[in-house]
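Today's session is about reading a structure prediction critically. Students often jump straight to the picture, but the first step is always the sequence itself: look for stretches that repeat, for charged clusters, for runs of hydrophobic residues. Only then move on to the predicted structure, which in these notes is written as discrete structure tokens rather than atom positions. Here is the chain we will use throughout the hour.
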Amino acid sequence: MSKEKLFNVPNALSMYRLLSFPFLLWMVLTGRENLFAIFLCINLVTDILDGLIARGFNLQTKFGARLDSLADNGTYILAFLGIVYFKMDDLKDVMWMLYLFLFLFIVGNLTSLIKFKKFPSLHLYSTKIAGYVQGIFFFTLFAVGYYPWLFYFAMIMGYISWTEEFVILMRLDKMKSNARGVYWLWKEKER
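Below is the predicted structure for this chain, in token form.
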């Protein structure tokens, strides 16, 4: 079994996202909304790039999958904080939907921590699609303004993604990276 190459471009992009979190948190806590929005968007773009580069150049590693998932979790948390601190007036009537999203996010992560002693790194197709929609929502919210239909779409996609993740976590016997989705998991079990 060969050793994974830990230093590569996708892992460096994920590491950048992790290292940027204290800076983004500082921007939230000190009220620097424009700067926060710029760096949040940079983090969203690097999230897209690290996956494309890893798959396109065959640089996928177990370490990279875990690092990417950890960076994704931090990005979700910081985006949520940014919304609460900067955009609460726009979303005050629908915050319950954001809280439900956060609840499902926490349930999935706690399930994985309890069952497998680590954060999930499933990289489901539904999570990728939901992440793109949510990234568009965050960008639009901070750059242009609030569009309710985009918010609803982003939340529904998130609910679907987190529900699928929970179902998969409950069915797995051991943690699996890049599970793709329930359909592929069931196809594997049929073999």
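Discussion point for the tutorial: The chain has a mean pLDDT of 91.
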